[in-house]
Structures are given as structure tokens and as C-alpha cells.
Fold these 4 entries.
Entry 1:
Amino acid sequence: MTLDVARIRKDFPILDRRVRGGRPLIYLDSANTSQKPRQVIDAISGFYERHNANIHRATHELSEEATAAYEGARIKVAGFVGARDESEIIFTKNISEAINLVAYSMSNASAGAPAPDRFRLGPGDEIVVTEMEHHSDLVPWQLLCQRTGATLRWFSVTPEGRLDLSGLDGLINERTKLVALVHQSNVLGTVNPVRLIADRAHAVGALVLADAAQSVPHMPVDVQDLGADFVGFTGHKMCGPTGIGVLWARRELLDEMPPFLGGGEMIETVWMDHSTFAPPPHKFEAGTMPIAEAAGLAAAIDYLNETGRESIHAHEQALLGDALTQLTGIDGLRILGPTEPEDRGTAISFEVDGVHPHDVSQVLDELGIAVRAGHHCAWPLHRALGVQASTRASFYLYNTHEEVAALIDGIRQAQKFFGVN
């Protein structure tokens, strides 16, 4: 089904904004954060206006309604990503916290908390990541290795922006305890073969975590098919609110993992000298959780499902093909990563000869075009590709081919302004 983009755009109030002296907003920064449809905004304000109360801790009607909204959101998330049941869904404040949850749980196990050996690390053990990772899926593992004495190893990236899998069997070996990798790169758009890597990791007894922050909003993702043991993503990149993220994990792993944070709600019983913990998912949700945000995330899932995830993906791939074709036609512009749309998402990072990425971004901003410039929280990847920074345009369901054309024209204006065309 072809998307009715004109209708979709009416659902996003911010797209009617005028910026920089009255120019229409062209928002090409959805890999950073997506815009929110009215349905999500209304769900959040409606929760605060009609149902605001804390969850699980009272028997009055408002608390029952708030609990139903929060736990109902968990059920919707489970269905959205193909979880076996909602107890495999942990709510966090973002994907960074979701990844840190796993890292600190393994750290607690390594420090002596009751847990099976597969969660314990020490000298001689290894964690494998990639040069393609967002800092959120790199720094937690660096810190875990520092705390435990484990060694961090990584897949390199080819000049074409793909993972170099030539040494797969040597890199993932009997010393590997965990492999963490991005499903879709926030810089290159590259979609990585998670299943292939996960099968190798499982063959040597290692766990696998997939960062799906950039894939879940843009394509149907089934966690069973993906093959990882842990999958994280975040609400604000999928038309939902900030302040809520998701960790999916296999239930048998959640049963065995020690908790990350202590506090209210995550306990079963408490004495002065020790405590026992609630079963998953509540064992990993200490304190008051993002309740209104969960209601907003549920509305975002409804919106994406009703719009049609396959149709969204097809529309974005058409925009991607158009943008790649036109960008490769600009002299002096280099795309970082794959230049063909196969196994690629809609985040396109590029550099323009003779113009700093921030200057490109500033010229585009003056034209009303919002993009991002910098290292995009992926400093090692930029170093591996031999660049300090890049400009990134990213597309979503509400973008149009006319906006692609405006981007191309804006880049040419930047070249002209700096005298490099």
C-alpha cells in the first residue's frame, strides 16, 4: 500500500512550523529523534488529565487505570517486536539504560551476586563489539571490561561501510562471553547480519545483544528471527516520547540475571539485612517508572501499526534510493557507507570537500532544513573511515521527495557559498 504522505503530515503539528524567518521546516533529523503525531501527544496529555496516579501501589480507581495503561503498553510492545509474552519486555528510560542494564547485571554477577557462570566475567574472558557502534553500545562494555578484567575486541569496518566478517570464527571464540552489535548503523545506515553473527556466538556459548534503536522504527523487526538474546530500542525515535526505552530479553535469561537497580517495586520481600526480588519484568524496574511515556509509546505503536510498517519501510526505501542517486551526482560529495539501498537504512552521512560539516549544516539550517553534523556519537567509526565529522540527513515516514530535492539544492548552495563548486 502506498503511503498517503500528505495525510500523514497533517498528523504532525510541528511540520507546520516556520523557521529562520518564515521558511517551512524540512525535518531531516529523525535518526536523532523523530517527530510526534497528534495521537501520541493526545495520549500523554490525556493520561495526565484523566488517569494520573502511580502504578501497582494503590487500589483506588486512578491507580488501577494508570496500571492498566502502563501494563497495556508492555503488551503492545511485546506484540510489536514478536516477544513470546510481555514479561520479556523491560521498560527503561532509553536504549542507553537498556544496554547498561545488561552490562551492570553482568558486573553484579561478576562481583558475586547469585547468577550462572555465563553472566560472570573475569581476566581471560572477552566481549566483542564493532567499530560501527554508537557510544551507547561501546562505552558500557569498555567500563564492564575495566571492572572485571575482561578484554574488549571488535569487528572492523570496510571502506564501503560494511562489517569485515573475514575473521568471524577467530574473533568470536571459546573466550567470548558476549557479542554486542548494532542492527542498523545510525551513521552509515548499514543493516548488519545479526542472525549470522548470533549463530556463531551461540555456537561458542556467548550471549548476543543487538542495538535496534535505528531499525525498530523503520522496518518490521521480530526478535525471534533476529537471533539475539537481548534487543534494545527507544521510544523517541519511533514517533513516541522521550524518557522511555525498551529492553527485550529471553525470559530464561531475565530469571537468572541479578537486578541492576534497587528500590521500590522490584522487591518481593525486604528484611534489614537482605531482600528477595520480584520476578521479571518488575525485578528490573525499580522506583516510579515513566508511566505517561508508556501511554505515549503505546499510542506510537498503534500509529505505526495502523499506518502499516511494510508501507513505511517501502516509502523510506524510495526516498533513500532517490537521495542516494542525487547525492552521488554532486561533485565533491562523499557518502560514508553503502551507496546502494540494499541492506541499508535512511540515515545518510556525507562530507563535502572544502566545507566543514557544521558549515554545511548551518547553511541548510538557514534554508529551514534540519540535519545533524558531528560524529553522531560514533567517534571510533569516523576515525576508522578517516574523517573527523560528517553531515547526516535522515528520513522517516513524513518526508517527501520534494524535501530530498530541497536537501540537494541546499548542499549545492553551501558549495557555492564557500566557493567550492
Entry 2:
Amino acid sequence: MSASFTGRTVALCVAGGIAAYKAVVVARLLIQAGAKVIPLMTASGARFVGKITLSGVCGEAVIDDMWDPKFSGEAHVAIAERADAIAIVPATADLLARLAQGRADDLVAALCLVARSPIVVAPAMHPRMWQHPATQHNVALLRERLHFVGPVHGAVANGDVGMGRMSEPEAIVAAIGEALGKRDLEGRHVVVSAGPTVEDLDPVRFIGNRSTGKMGFAVAAAASARGARVTLVSGPVSLATPPGVARVDVRSAIDMGDAIDRAMADADALIMAAAVSDYRPRAVDPDKTKKSGDTVTIELVKNPDLLARVGARRGESKHPVLVGFAVETRDLVGYARAKLAQKKVDLVVGNLAAHGFGGDDDEVVIVGATSERPLRGSKRAIADAILDDVVMRLHA
């Protein structure tokens, strides 16, 4: 185990499953790696692991009561403020169901609902429980906001074999380290735009584009995980706000520009992942436009170039760091390099429309003044690669 947890605090939540005994090993490994571990238990978790055992390893009393008298306020809020990460070991089918529903009916569920830090869950249950459609539905919901490690294929408590066995402690600790990630944006303010903008024709119709916002949301989540204060300016999308991110919802290009201008007052970086409409209708009909002929002509006027506007204001300064995106259908690097100069930005991330829209993976080229770096992988991995470049420029 190579990850260092020095200076990090992990809230280790033990739920009620036979694999709970492995949580003690997870606690020991975290402490050996330099972490401070806050031990928590659900009521059923205490049936599988003794509090004295867990508190003995962690060096502090197990917390299992939302009304614990040693907390002057609400226990779950106080723990969330202390924890850099939350780990649920094991995560039972019941607890996953309650987390998917946003329940807060015990200390662990309430902690997860109030937490801003990454949450790692290590599922453990009988294979038939894991395969049940209800569990799979809950897991699909939770994958949008939690980090899963396992389960794995193997023998479970009653001797049956299948997918449902909890990952080993070393893998769980590694996943916690990965979820914590770097903290190289601590104290920085990163502004991210995401999703489409839409331009209304009337109260029913609009002009838009196919952006889903997934790339921008991945960047916002990654920046928050790395310690940044993040303002996410988002067009209309159906995505959950990443933990710890301040979200501003907008609709049109003009609205997005106003929101970005407000956020940029103290920003260290702007990552412009939004697909901003180039044009808008000259006039918006206050009533629904009625069908009246075989053709219709809509007069469009040009929207302001939001990133170029920020680049022009920055002038020759290299602060804040500016990153643009170029979605193209051909000559990707050529168009990206042209935008780099036109918009006076530090980086342009180019991707082909066929690869980028809607999926969780992407293929991009990160273009700088003297560099071109092709990348392929998950949007979260690409987000971290972009932030690596941003951090390098901030430190320079």
C-alpha cells in the first residue's frame, strides 16, 4: 500500500454484515498510512464487531448515536466537517437502498446526506441480493455520487459463490486514497461552465445543442476533490451537483456570461466546458408562435464570445488560468490551435462530436501554445489531466 494518508481524517462507518470484521483491518491499514480514523457504527453493525475492538484500533470511542452528548451540535454535521473522506465497510443492501433514497434515519445515513467529502462504499451481500433489480437500480443511482469498490466474485458467508463478496481491506484503502486524490487546489477558486445554453424562440420552443454537461460536471467534481472552491455555472442538464460545489443554473448565453462575470471576481481559473450557443433569436415571441405556412424564417444575432471576453480582459497576464473547449467534426487540432490564439487562453481541449456527446468516456487533445497531448479515457480521468495542467500554470 503506497498511498499516504498523513493529515487526512477518514470517517469509517461499519454496517451490519458478516464482512464487518474486515473493517477493523481497514482501520488498522489507514492508521498505519498516517490517517486519523473516526469510527462509526450502525445498530446492526454493532452485532458483528465489538465497539471495544474498533475503538481500541482507532484510539477513540465508537460513535453510533445521532444524539451523542459529547457533540454540542448535531453529530453528523460535526463529523462531516472533520472528515476528508467517508468509507462504509461493509455497505449492505439495506444501507445502499437508504442512501439511494436520500434517507437520514440513522447516524451513517445522515452523515452521508450532509457530507461534502468523497464517500467510498464497499458492498457486501449475498450474490442474489446484489443481482436483484432493486439493488442494481440503487447502485446505478449511487454511482453518480459515490465511489464504489467491489463487490468481487467469490465465496460469501454461507458458502455460496458469486458476485457479492466484499473487496479485501487493501483494495478498500487504495480506493479511499484514490477518492481523496490530490489536494493541490486547496485555497483556489475554480470556475467551471458546463452543459448547453438554450435560446428561446417563444415560451415553447428554443434553439439548443446536444451537450449533456458531463464533461464540465466531471471537471467540477475533480476540482472540488482536489481542494478547490468551485463555482459551477450550468446550462439546463439533468445531472446531480457534485459534492462541495456551488452551482449556478442558467439558461441562455447572456445569462451564462453574467454568471461567469460575477464568479470571476476572485477566480484563479476558468474552465469553459459549456457548449455556448453562437447565435440567439433577434426577437422572442411572448406567445407560442402558430404554424402559418410551409417555411419560416428566424433572424438570429450573434452571441458574445464569453471565453474570448475573459481572455481580452486578462490581457498579457497569466492569471486567471483560462481553458477552452473545441467540439469539432474535422481538423480537430487545427481548430483548437486557432481558438487558442483567438480567445487568448492557455489551453484548448479539443474533441470530436462523435466521441464526446452523452457518453462517460471521451477522446480529446489538450492543446497548449507549444504542446499537443492526446488522451483517451473516462471524463473524470480527462478532467484530472486538465487540472494537472491548470495546477502547473498556477504554480508557475
Entry 3:
Amino acid sequence: MKTLFDESNIGKLKLKNRFIRSATHLSLAEKDCHTSEKLLNAYEDLAQGGVSVIITGFSHAFAEEQPAVKMIGAYDDKFIPDFKKITEVVHKHDCNIIMQLAYGGSQSKLLKAKRKIMGPSAVEHIFTGIKPIEMTKKDFKAFSEKFGDAALRVKKGGFDGVQLHCAHGYMLSQCLSPYHNRRADEYGGPIENRARIIFETYENMRKKVGDDFPILVKINCSDFMGEDGLQLEECKVLCKKLAQMGLDAIEISGNVAYNENSPLIFEKKISRDKSRQSYFSKYAAEIAAEIDIPLIVVGGNRSIDVMTDILNSTDISYFSLSRTLLSEPDLINKWKEDENYNPKCVACNKCWSLKGNICILNR
């Protein structure tokens, strides 16, 4: 029987357990996108707390495209010393750390008048009302190059891998969505074309970081928008192709709020109702059964018995957590001592603040 505290590997990366801290916007970096003492302390607390891998909150590869406040940058070599500070702190505690890279696009309202906001098509965003500039083929080429350069900086900064953020309605997620992507060229239409920029970006990153540096992708299992969004069967096609290309692991999530009946990332009723936990696992299990690389599932993972059952009844290999680790960075150590321990987090979502995303119990 497999356990959540088994040792394992993702590529050359050695993991001491099956718990991963999913990328989480902390809003603790400096305004100029450099690291800070608060951010370093937050990552050290997580590293000491028992998790095997930390995936950072997203970093941006374009200087003019900062999609969230107080996030670290990856668009210039000047950030490499900051990266080394972060990785050195984390590695002291037998923990791995992976940098997530993202492009916000019309999903983000931050500094919308100052940003050059690009997207697959000039389609107004449902919630923000922002209409992006339709990307040209030259823009797509520049995009993949910028992300490849950023991935190389991540490697030079001592990180253990890099994750490409293709979920949650950000620009790469929009490329996969028929609602946002209405192109008639080779970047639009069937899923193989809508995913072309992801394949090209992965190839550029791989060329620049080499075969041995772990590259992961985070993707929605579905947008839960019917024919207007990415569907589960299309996600399977994309994941199988990425696995064939040499990707090291896939993290499965789902769209946030395009459909009020979908399983939501910020689900509030899961702290005591186990039937509502691990809410993307049934979709992730279908994908995991069709690929031969490790699959990580995020979303409401907060009970040892629920996750252990999923681990032993599906091909899902790892579980990533966010809000529970905002509340208790040492939660994994607590579970190791007592598998029946109930996290303090009740999914109230009051951890999200422009002053820093910190659990309300810890402010």
C-alpha cells in the first residue's frame, strides 16, 4: 500500500513525501519585484514545515506585464541573485523549490492602463471587461523566447525546476479556451492548434535549460464552460502530447469561477465535509490513467484518509495544497505525527489581502 510519506522522484528531483505546496500568490515581494525578508521568511517556514516541494507564486517573464502586486520578476538577469537567496534558504531544510512562470493578460486588472495586455484574440474578458490586443505570430514567437530565457534564469538561480502556468484563466489558459481563442490560423481551432503556443514555449524552455532540469505544467482539467471552454477530453489530448514531448509532471487544477456550478478553487464548505474535498481528483484520475508521467492534483486536499484512498485507487501520485499551508506552514509535520489532525483552515478565504496573503489567524 502506498502512503503519503513515501519517498519518490519527479525526474531527477527527489521527494521525501507526496505533499507539494501549490503556487500561491503571497504578495510579499518588494514593489520593484525583488525579494524581501518577509518573502524569504515565508518560504523558510514552509521548508521547515515538512512539505517536499514548494512551487512559488508566479513570476512574470515580461517587464511590462506584471499581473499581480508584489510578485518577484524573472524578466531580467538582475533577479538571479534574488533567486539564489530564496533557494539557499529553502535548501537548508531538505526541501525542493520550483519557480512558476505566468503571463496574466486580461485576467488581471492591475495597472491595466500601463500594461501591454495581449491575448489569443481581442475578446473582452467576462469579469474584468478588458479587451486584450490580439497576438501576432511574431508575438507568439517572442513569448516562447521570453519564457525560455526566464526558465534559464530560474535554473541559474538554483531552483529545482520550473512550472509553466496554463490554468486559472491566465493568458495560456485563454489560448486553450474557445471563448477567448477565436483564431483561424494555426494557433486556433482544434485543441492541437490552441495548445500550440504551450508546446512551443515548452520546447524553448527545454532547449535552454537542458534535458535534466524538471519542467512542469499546471493546467485546468476543464474550464467548466461547456463548448465555450477547455473540456476534459481536450485536456487529456494536451497532457498526453506534453508527456510524449518529455514534460516531467503535470499539476491538474480547474477554472476558478466561469460557472457557478463548477468545483471552485475557493470552495468554502470543505473543512468538515470530506465528500467535497479533493474536488478535482475525479477528473485528474482520468487524465493520470492516460499518461506515463507523474500527476499532481490540487484543490481541497485536506484529509489524510481521503488523499490516501485517492493515492491507492487511482494513478495520481502527488497532492498539492495552498490555503491550508497559508494557515499552517508546518501542517505536513503535524500530519506526520498525527494523521487524524484537522487543519485550522476553514476555507474562509480571508487570507487574501493586498497587504500580503496571510491567514487571518496569523496576522
Entry 4:
Amino acid sequence: MGRVNYGPHLHDEKGITEKVELVDERGARELGPWEQVPHPFDAAHLARLAFSRADAPLGVPAVYRGSFELDRVGDTFLDTRGWSKGAVWINGHALGRYWKIGPQQTLYVPGCWLKAGTNTVLVLDVDGGTTTLSLAGLDYPILDQPADDVATPKKLRKPGQELALAGRIPVAEDTFADGAKDQQVVFPAVKARYVALVAKNAQRDDAFTTLAELYLLGPGGTELPRSNWSVLWADSEEVESENGSAQNVVDGDPQTFWHTQWSSAKPAHPHAIVLDLGQEETLTGLRCIPRQNSANGRIRQWALYTSKEPFAGL
């Protein structure tokens, strides 16, 4: 998936990193012990795979094998439309990874990896296969075709909603330093379930607000888990010309970011985002990761408001 695997923002460890619990009316019970078995999918591993003519059930990761005949060889492009997400090998050569969301819907096949006669194809589909179980060779690439079912993010702000902070005193307000480095601020402990971050202006004095990730600190300065968090509202989001959804501030990926509207309108500061932490927490600080790939919209002056009840106006 090309995940971030270096630097200060390693964020998406895979597998069982701590424990697995079953939570029901009896409480939380830890499950285990667990054994994790790696599958390297190198040439030796692929050669040991056992295949059956039985149809694999949809929704279950599986490796599919097929073959095709060629009279002569040449470069081609393998059409993976109809499959979900995975990787392809031809005659033992790894072509690469595919994903139905696009926009790339073909994999380049060098002619030197093909041969006259029988050629073998292996497809690892991790999302559970396809109803067609077919591939096709094309004489052109498809590099600009997003899937039709990739939805455009919806704006969080509903008609008539307006965050009302009149009479409230922020629990913290400060000025972030300029640049792409993480910004961390501590403040006296406060109990809250709802949090509103208000950006008063930007480092470059533009009209936008951008923010890659927002974390909150709990007792002892440790970061609170964000698994139960949700973004309830944002005054502005750019979802027409790019995915600038406010949901990006809690997605764990510092390369995505919330961006206020810029394509059809450019609303001025202040800009605000409201989070529901899922339960009342003790807050002692915050950590923000600014937008990493551009200085546009990076927050300068800001204020943080908290509440045990939903904010008025939302």
C-alpha cells in the first residue's frame, strides 16, 4: 500500500500490535495466544502453493492461477478491472499491485517476461476475488479511470449549523511556530468529551486552514487513543477539487489533510473543527501535525474550546 515507513510519522503498524479483546455484556476478555505466520510470496513460496478447481468463496483472500497461449510475444498491458485489490505474477515475475479504485487500471507487462506457448498467471486478491475471474491483455494502458463507486467525501456542515462559542473561554490559545514540524502544547487538565479547535489565521496570511493530524494528550502527557473519535463538524472543507475532508485530521496519515474550501469559494478566517471523543476524557494538551507538502493554510494563532455537552448550534 506504500505506507509511510520512515521518519517521525510512522503511524500505521500492521497486525496485532498489542492485544485482541472480546467485549460483551460480561466485560472485556483478552483472546489468545496468537501465532502470526508470514507469507513472503517470493518465488519459492509461490512454487509451493497448492491449487484446487473449487471456486474460492467471495470475500476471502485467495490466490488464483490461470494460463494463456501466445504465438508471438510483445509488450502488453494487463487489464485488472473487475478485480478488487492485490498483486499479479506472470511466469514468476511480479508485475506489481492493483487496486480497483484506480485511476491506474492496468499493469505493464514487458514482452521479455512472456514466451511463445503457455504462460502462467497468478493473482493474489486480498479483498476476496471477483465474479468474472478473468484478465485481458490490452495494447494501451488505462491510467486515468477512477472507479465509479469511489464516493466524493461529504461535507460535515449541515445547512443552518453554526458553531456558537459566545461566552466560552478557551482552555488554551497560542501561536504555532512556522514550518512542517509537529506542534505540541500543554495546558491545565480539563475534563471534556467535545473539542473545538479554532484557527484564527494562517502562517502565510492566506484565507485557508490546513491540518494533517490532531492528537490530544491525557494524564501524564500520553496521547489519547483515537479509535472512538469522530469529526462532527467543520465550518469549511474542500471536497470538490480534492479530498480536503476534515475527517483527514484523525485518519492516522500525515500525508492527508483537512483543507478549507478554495475551488468555488474562499471563506475567510476563523475556521473551526469539532471532535467528539466518544466519552469524557481528561485532557492536558494537544499535538498537531501541520500540512506536510505545502505551507498553504498552516495554522498560526489558534484557540481550543472543550465541553462535556455538545456545542450549541450543532
